[in-house]
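A reminder from the course coordinator: this example appears on the midterm review sheet, so study it carefully.

Given structure:
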């Protein structure tokens, strides 16, 4: 269950860590105060349903920390993870009457939430906010098309490497990174996997056994280190990116 929401207020918005990267970064200070007046900070535990498929849209959100998985359900009840939402992504589809997917917290999540009608009124009032949201939507579309290529054309090893590279690129924003130790080389990354192996398999269209086998292969090659729990260390993110792109020389 989500914790009771906390009123944002003008100070929280002005000092927010994701402000300049989120949709609200398009607003001037006075406009940001207006947004803060309608916003509420909410916390969700891993496993909480944040939005339900086909239910009326009641709020939108900027993700401050954590990871959310987006899921669709088929007519016969099967579910598929169709996307991941990271900070500072925007959650929800403006001007839609209902939610197009389930949104479930994959990790503990902190989000700035805005009432449906009040936020849409701000979009109509402030063209900069509407333009930033449009840009974000196009970026999400590009990312979805890129992921279609991953799922449709890449090998199992490339799919798992692509997933790890995605997390490594965004780990500084998701609230599950372990920082950069002084003795770690430049270009390294250390993070906790936000998904279980079953969820990774679902997201990549693979079996759990295949995901486990490919993680073991990447470990044996020295591309990653599997530490305690879900912790992963990537000594060289560029090498992981090359492997994800199908460059065989990356593991030579």
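Designed residues:
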């Amino acid at each position: 269950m989500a914790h009771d929401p906390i009123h944002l207020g003008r100070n929280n918005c002005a000092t927010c860590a994701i402000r300049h990267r989120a949709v609200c970064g398009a607003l001037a200070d006075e406009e940001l105060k207006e947004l803060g007046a309608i916003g509420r900070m909410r916390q969700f535990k891993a496993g909480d349903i944040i939005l339900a498929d086909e239910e009326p849209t009641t709020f939108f959100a900027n993700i401050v920390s954590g990871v959310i998985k987006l899921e669709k359900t088929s007519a016969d009840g099967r579910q598929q993870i169709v996307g991941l939402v990271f900070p500072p992504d925007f959650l929800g589809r403006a001007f839609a009457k209902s939610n197009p997917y389930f949104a479930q917290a994959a990790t503990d999540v902190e989000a700035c939430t805005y009432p449906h009608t009040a936020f849409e009124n701000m979009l109509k009032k402030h063209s900069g906010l509407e333009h930033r949201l449009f840009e974000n939507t196009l970026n999400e579309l590009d990312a979805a098309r890129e992921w279609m290529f991953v799922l449709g054309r890449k090998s199992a090893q490339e799919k798992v490497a692509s997933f790890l590279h995605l997390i490594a690129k965004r780990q500084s924003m998701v609230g599950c990174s372990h920082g950069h130790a002084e003795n770690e080389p430049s270009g390294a990354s250390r993070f906790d996997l936000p998904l279980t192996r079953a969820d990774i398999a679902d997201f990549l269209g693979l079996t759990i056994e295949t995901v486990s086998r490919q993680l073991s292969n990447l470990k044996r090659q020295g591309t990653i280190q599997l530490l305690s729990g879900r912790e992963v260390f990537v000594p060289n993110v560029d090498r992981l990116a090359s492997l994800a792109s199908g460059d065989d020389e990356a593991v030579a």
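Residues 154-251 form a domain with the Arc Repressor Mutant, subunit A fold (CATH 1.10.10.10). The chain has two domains: 6-148, 154-251.
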